[in-house]
């Protein structure tokens, strides 16, 4: 009976461990929690402010004609930006076809097959490349392709954008591969799989969500770049004619050209182009998240 009574009583050591709201540590925790929440809210304010403002300014031209017609000529009030949407998709597709394979393969080599002495300078060079201004990529593509080919082209624009996409893809893919536990690799090799089979069939599928996220971020950056296109393509209000045609419309270039105009109609289409560009990036992000959530690793 004495034992039961003793067990039902709370020892003084347990009572002393109960949280006291008036203790300085608890007060500090609450203050820092509130401060962190306030910082998050302040960080989100510019994001939502930009999105809401772009939607308000660009929604007035959001209709079917916006996606199917050419920009209005002087004196017209109706038209669209279908050519710029198609040109943006074409240039970004060319950049993705160049940057995604090379970026993923480079990250696989760094994470799976290289030693630390080789990987360290390559990772440093990748970090340096990620900080290079976008206009430098445009000058590089201009010197390498435009001057040698003797004309502007969507291909040259795609090469310039691929230079900007590469460091993002390499860094995110490298980090995604490093997150995959080493035990999985050892288990695969232990049952007789080669290093290449382990990477292709085990490691890459496990890291696929992170890889797709990095590719999405790179595509979003490329779609919104204007400076590289100033040196590689010539804007036109006509439909794009091919990857090697000198005149290639794009949304970023259209926004740049129309926003500088004193014509109110063209300024409205510039805001509409900004809204479409934001929606394209948003849709790409949603589709990538949906695609990676369909398969459990």
From TrEMBL:
Keyword Membrane: yes
Chief location: membrane
Keywords: Cell membrane, Membrane, Phosphate transport, Transmembrane, Transmembrane helix, Transport
PROSITE patterns, per the entry: ABC_TM1
Pfam families assigned: BPD_transp_1
Localization per Swiss-Prot or TrEMBL: Cell membrane
Protein name in the entry: Phosphate transport system permease protein PstA
Domain ABC transmembrane type-1: 85-288
GO CC entries: plasma membrane
Species the sequence originates in: Okeania hirsuta
Similarity-based family: Belongs to the binding-protein-dependent transport system permease family. CysTW subfamily.
Transmembrane segments: 31-56, 84-110, 122-146, 152-170, 202-223, 269-291
UniProt topology in membrane: Multi-pass membrane protein
GO biological process, one term: phosphate ion transmembrane transport
GO molecular function: phosphate transmembrane transporter activity
This protein's record includes keyword Transmembrane helix: yes
